[in-house]
Design goal:
Blueprint lengths: L4 E3 L2 E4 L4 E6 L10 E6 L6 E6 L5 E3 L7 E5 L5 E6 L8 E7 L10 E6 L1
Parallel strand pairs: 2-10
Antiparallel strand pairs: 1-3, 3-8, 4-5, 4-9, 5-6, 7-8, 9-10
Length: 114
């Protein structure tokens, strides 16, 4: 099974920005609706954003206006640009298909300090 690999997480102060990347070999990203998800400590994993094959995007209310999901020009990458970060955005972030029908990768940790 082709793996989805997340990267770009880190430690940032509240109000800061990060850009997460999700990449895979082949064309699986370009031919699927892709989503970003996150799981905060002690909480269930939640959906954050998704993008269709044609570029239509949707966002969870908690991140609307602050996060932007996009596809890379190379078609095998999807990004999550996060701005105006808040401590409550602290979580492990994952990319996956939407809806999810496969296992999860390792994710990338995002920590927002107050």
């Amino acid at each position: 099974q082709v793996q989805l690999v997340e990267s770009g997480g880190g430690l940032v102060q509240a109000g800061g920005s990060l850009r997460l990347s999700c990449s895979a070999s082949g064309s699986i990203i370009s031919i699927n609706v892709m989503g970003w998800y996150r799981q905060a400590p002690g909480k269930e994993r939640e959906w954050v954003a998704r993008i269709t094959q044609s570029g239509v995007t949707n966002y969870a209310d908690s991140v609307k206006g602050r996060f932007t999901i996009s596809r890379g020009n190379a078609k095998n990458t999807v990004y999550l640009q996060m701005t105006s970060l808040r401590p409550e955005d602290t979580a492990v972030y994952y990319c996956n298909f939407w809806p999810v029908n496969r296992g999860w990768g390792q994710g990338t940790q995002v920590t927002v300090s107050s």
